[in-house]
């Protein structure tokens, strides 16, 4: 999360969905990956994942911000970067619905637990060999509530379009239900759409930056991959205002959020993570401008209220 934007959605290159890591500079049109730390891929409940071929079992999960930016030609300046660099560390386990997604031992995206059996994330986060981590705070250390789950079904929206970020939403059915507790708990789905000015929190393990909004210099030297979950306080931005930042790019199934003048947003590594407003899940980190630690543009999120019927029907059928 970039505190230029607390939480920044990142995950696309030049207008592409990004696995939003707070802050981070992304090369135009190229996938964003941030080298990270090793994390033991085990679950205190007994479920373990097979070790990665060719890697030491002690390496466990190599934490990386695997941001996938899909460049939208008509929005050449924007990037899937829901991880605006800066933001503060969340109070441990204050976001019990927060999920970490891993691909073959590498951190890939954020997500949200919406029921004991289901996780909601961005379609651009789809990879092979997906694993779900629940109850995480510090990806380097375990403090008890962590749970590892295999994925039984991966269901991206059937009309997802990578270039336009249209329908950037995906459901994951867990192989085993989550053990619910105060530190692992689903987030309610909305009963209405978000309103301009509404206060929200975006969270993730995306890149973070110590750089102030509008600052210049080499961003590579000022961003870092946090061990701990970070949170950013942002607000819903009106469609009219956001259209000025991303002319011709926004759809009615998207919602913008950020801080006036920048400073807090999602970034690379945050992709797929939650935008929580009033205690309900209103958005999924999808895409945004880059570099996310210096831009003054808001992040763009998949508007969850637009997909309630699809979510409920898909869960019912599967």
UniProtKB/TrEMBL annotation:
<keyword id="KW-0720">Serine protease</keyword>
<dbReference type="GO" id="GO:0005576">
    <property type="term" value="C:extracellular region"/>
</dbReference>
<keyword id="KW-0325">Glycoprotein</keyword>
<keyword id="KW-0645">Protease</keyword>
<dbReference type="InterPro" id="IPR033116">
    <property type="entry name" value="TRYPSIN_SER"/>
</dbReference>
<keyword id="KW-0964">Secreted</keyword>
<dbReference type="InterPro" id="IPR018114">
    <property type="entry name" value="TRYPSIN_HIS"/>
</dbReference>
<keyword id="KW-0865">Zymogen</keyword>
<feature type="region of interest" description="Disordered">
    <location>
        <begin position="1"/>
        <end position="57"/>
    </location>
</feature>
<dbReference type="GO" id="GO:0006508">
    <property type="term" value="P:proteolysis"/>
</dbReference>
<keyword id="KW-1015">Disulfide bond</keyword>
<dbReference type="Pfam" id="PF00089">
    <property type="entry name" value="Trypsin"/>
</dbReference>
<dbReference type="InterPro" id="IPR009003">
    <property type="entry name" value="Peptidase_S1_PA"/>
</dbReference>
<dbReference type="InterPro" id="IPR001254">
    <property type="entry name" value="Trypsin_dom"/>
</dbReference>
<keyword id="KW-0732">Signal</keyword>
<feature type="domain" description="Peptidase S1">
    <location>
        <begin position="84"/>
        <end position="316"/>
    </location>
</feature>
<keyword id="KW-0378">Hydrolase</keyword>
<dbReference type="GO" id="GO:0004252">
    <property type="term" value="F:serine-type endopeptidase activity"/>
</dbReference>
<dbReference type="InterPro" id="IPR043504">
    <property type="entry name" value="Peptidase_S1_PA_chymotrypsin"/>
</dbReference>
<protein>
    <recommendedName>
        <fullName>Peptidase S1 domain-containing protein</fullName>
    </recommendedName>
</protein>
<dbReference type="InterPro" id="IPR001314">
    <property type="entry name" value="Peptidase_S1A"/>
</dbReference>
<comment type="similarity">
    <text>Belongs to the peptidase S1 family. Snake venom subfamily.</text>
</comment>
